[in-house]
Amino acid sequence: MSELRRRVIKGTGICEGIGEGKAFVIRQFKPSFQAESSLSVEEEIHRFKKALEKFNDELDDMIKKTRSHSAAGEAEILEAQLILSQDTSLFNKTLEHIKQGYSSEYAIDGVCTECIEGFMRSGDRSLIDRTEDIRDIEQRMMVILSEKKQPDMKDIPENSILFCDELGSNLLPLLYSKNLVGVVSQRGSISGHAAIVVRGITIPAVFSANGILRFVKDGQNIIVDGRNGLVYINPSSEDEKNSRNLRIWIDNRRREYEKYRNLPGLTSDGYKFAVLSNIGSDEGLMRAYENGCEGIGLYRTEYLFQKKGGEPSEEEQFEIYKKAAIIMKEKDTVIRTIDVGGDKLMPYLMHPSGMRGTHERNPFLGLRGIRRSLAFKESFLRQIKAILRAASYGNVSISIPMLTTLNELREAKEIIKEAEAELTKEGKEFKKDVPVGIMLETPSAAILADEFAKEVDFFSVGTNDLTQYLMCAERDNPGVEYLYSVFEPAVIRVMYNIIKTAKKNGIRVGICGEASHDVNFLAMLVAWGADGVSVSPAYVTEVRALVAGLKMEGAEDFFAPVLSMGTRGEIKEFLHRFREKAFEIA
Q1: How many Å apart are CA 512 and CA 461, to the nearest integer?
Q2: Confidence (pLDDT) at 340
Q3: Which domain holds residue 233?
Q4: Which of 96, 104, 360, 411: CA 20 to 30 A from 153?
Q5: Are residues 532 and 394 located together in one domain of the fold?
């Protein structure tokens, strides 16, 4: 009878929706192995190399599958793991242990543990973040060596709810199974990479469901309520009834959203508020086009660079950017120049001093964004030339990331002029005077917004990084996640000042980031006069429908009290209590 006991576990809702099905539980594999190998050294080396070859083949296959499902960001993480798995120092250290008579498992465990400890001691945030990749590699190699079958899409029964300790990169490909109707993870943050992937494919999900694996068993009846962050194990008939009613309400609302697929973004009183898309690949481009976006507000070009073979040539980049320009036609296509550093590895680029950029003490405050582009001028010049050539085929703009000083902007603009001169000399077709804007995402740029506004054509406000830097809170760090919110008074006031500065100087201002599909945040952006938002392709119709339910008239006066509030709690209470009275929200 205990197995049929009803339980309700509260976690964090990651993606709205109701999933009803049977539990499909993946428990962490705990390998057992002997230190000494029972095989000869030659046989053990052959065993290790064979396992590594299988690991690389499986990872290649996973990368292809994720790219076929428009998951550029997820493929990026898998590619980073592929690079790590092919690191010669890791390979050679493992072989050294095996040659001393140890088993492959013992050698891998020792080398990976040593690597992780070294990363942790380094104090380098990007290396510390890579420890999860090392653990994933070790875990997968152990499974292969044990000859234990790894879960695959075809192993998932119909109407399954996936349960796991943490939704690591090795499990992300399972999300694309047609048989999966929900996801529950014991760990994970609302702003982490796995959460972004889950929301991108709109599967009901709950993370941070602490201890849930102690209670759930394969085949149990489950309801996942991604809206309220609830997981029902062996739900009652009343639970099922309530969840189905909620699902009907959510489904009806999504059908309403579909009416806005190819309509312009307009408030109920006719204020134009564009809804564009963020993309990072051809697949994302097609999804954005199919969902009726009003343009590309952010083309993340770093995904093109994060591949094993190194930097794409000018011609390769040109063809990719040209495709986006042609598909979008007269619609905006804002191409952000390469933004690497921080949590984005680029192993083939070296620090100007000769030190690898990935070994900076604090890479989030190091050589990232425009700083790296200016340090690698020839690479930056090639990218700019490719963008200028693609601009001949559509309405293309250039956005420069991670600016902190006017000198950086001016140096970048000089390189754009140099690119124009080179293209003229080479006789290649290109567009002159392409609009240039900046990603406004650092406190320095926010303070100097009035100065930047005099020298650029538009602002793109990156709320993810702006919030992170203003609040000194890394968004993937659960320990400080409570600080990471666009509704913190400091973030609200800075956002307001940026938008008003742009309007005063007669330039466009658009907003990018995970917060852009929150109706409360949208309402304030409309009130303050922002020109639009750029969101994941999956959210285009929803955001447009939400905008259609908002009013511009009287909105700024309504939200004025928010600007004098001192805590996030006050702001959230104000928005919750009054929004439905003040706005006709869909």
Answers
A1: 6
A2: 77
A3: 2-26+151-255
A4: 104
A5: yes
3-state helix, strand, coil in the chain (%, to 5): 55, 15, 30
Identified catalytic residue from 69, 193, 293, 517: 193
Residues 6+ apart with CB under 8 A from 311: 305, 348, 349, 379, 382
Mind giving me the DSSP string for 470-497? Answer: HHT--TT-GGGGGG--TTSHHHHHHHHH
Q: Specify whether 512 is catalytic.
A: yes
| 172's tokens | 């992300």
Asked if 115 is an active-site residue, the reply is no
Same domain, 558 and 532: yes
Residues belonging to the chain: 586
Q: What CATH number did the domain enclosing 247 receive? A: 3.50.30.10
Residue that wins the pLDDT comparison between 86 and 276? 276
- Residue pair 26/162 in contact (Cβ under 8 Å)? The answer is yes
Q: Work out the percent of the chain whose per-residue pLDDT is above 70.
A: 85
The region of weakest confidence among 72-81, 190-199, 369-378, 531-540 is: 72-81
Q: How far apart are CA 169 and CA 189, in angstroms?
A: 14
pTM as predicted: 0.75
Based on the fold, state whether residues 400 and 519 are members of the same structural domain.
yes
CATH code for position 312: 3.20.20.60
**Residue 307: closest CA among 64, 55, 52:** 64
* Residues 309 and 405 both lie in one domain: yes
Going 516 to 520 to 523 to 524, the CA torsion angle's sign is negative
pLDDT of 428 higher than 90: yes
How many domains does the chain fold into? Answer: 3
Give the type of residue at 374: L
Marked catalytic residue, from 15, 112, 164, 512: 512
Residues 496 and 414 in one domain: yes
Cα Rg of the chain, angstroms: 25
DSSP secondary structure string, 313-382?
Answer: PHHHHHHHHHHHHHHHTTSEEEEEPP--BTTB--TTPBPTTSSBGGG-SSGGGSS-THHHHHHTHHHHHH
Say if CB 94 and CB 111 are below 8 A apart: yes
